[in-house]
Amino acid sequence: MTQNDKSSDPRPLWQWSATEIATATHRGALSASEVVEAALDRLDAVNPDLNAVVEVCVDAARAEAKALDASDAPKGPLHGVPVTIKINVDQKGHATSNGVAAFKDVIAPDDAPVVANLRAAGAVIIGRTNTPEFSFRADTDNPLFGRTHNPWGRHVSAGGSSGGAGASVMAGIGALAHGNDIGGSLRFPASANGAVTVKPGLGRVPAWNPSQTRERGLLAQSMSVQGVIARTADDLHLSMPTLIAADIRDPLHVPFPWTGTAPETPIKVAVSKNDFGFGLHQDVSLAIDRAASALTNAGYVVEEIEPPLVRETGEIGYRSLLGEVKTLLGPDIQEHGSDILQGIFDDYHKVFPPFEGTELVSMLGQRSRYARAWAEFMETYSLVLSPFLLQPFFAPARDTEGVEGVTEVLGQAHWSFVMSYLGLPAGNIPTHVAQLPYGPVPIGVQIAGQRWREDLIVDAMQAIEREIPPMCTTLWAQVMSECCT
């Protein structure tokens, strides 16, 4: 029997990767309907406890799968792969609530580009995933749908703002989960749940919500990106070429192929454990060492060296973003945000005082200075391996506990903000599970890459996974064994 035939693989279909599913559906060993039914069954089994998917698309998913099975058209690269969409992006006929009760009736007139691209590739949307209010927290909870829980346990946050996406994909609800990232919203939940992701760089994935009534600020346009959270690096190589397909509705999209020119080998990787004075937890240090060792064994040249202006770039970047957000989004948060969100927003400003007025305009101009310094550095070091967070992932609602809580959640996230502000691609991959007194916590590390070279980041993550198995195997075997058999 051939590899990935259902009859020869003892695993339930919900455990199959997107790559395995697509291979089987292309060969005719599996139908799209079989895969979708397995995903919907899994959703029914675990989502009531997790609250990751807040809108289930049962009838539409079954109809789409049936249409795929009946079609004689060429099969797309994601034929029959079940996916979820985050509720802050337009999906025709569905509410783009963004976790805000006041927006629960904002019905999308059409699909956003990322949704259209996934459909065109043959993916089947099975549901929409939770996000915090306005997608502006690193934890996922809101008055409209409630809290999303982490499949590793309720001792650790599911992350945010794509927390529903991270929890759902690691629990087996769909093989891919759409998310987006402006300051870390793909990478926070990937790290929290033990998933893999790559935050695309500036202009890579076309973006626009047909339901929107005004344009976003320039900094948001240049920092916010669309992507997916997956369980394996292979699935990123499968899915990301689909996401970057051009869409005329995004005039700033960069029509650059997924795979760039073959780099000179061996590829040099800079490793930094800079903790910016916060302290680096021993389990995070170990996770970096494990990633560095795997890359070395794969033939990469790994050197400990400090990239330029790291702390300054992160702080200036986040304070600039908060300045723009305070000006453009602040009134909406004051009018429609919960008391909890407004309190967190105020505490953000105490930790990272937002630039305003002339100072904000001046600081925005400095972005090119930082980007130039990093471009020169990455001419030699194509990849940069670093922590993502300096401590193991935080507890649910930690950011509601005043300045100290916000500092733990965002104050230690400089490595995230650096890549967001510069518009550089950055991946997150788990390499270790910290066995802490309150429970197991996966530890993700960050791998940043040259502009428009997401492919090199995913190559490196594949090399790491050849030594360190995907974290879903540990999760399903050790934590979710009762519901996964």
UniProtKB/TrEMBL annotation:
It is an enzyme of class 3 (hydrolase). Residues 34-457 form the Amidase domain. Keywords: Hydrolase. Its EC number is 3.5.1.4. It comes from the Bacteria. Gene3D superfamilies: Amidase signature (AS) domain. GO terms for molecular function: amidase activity. This is Amidase.
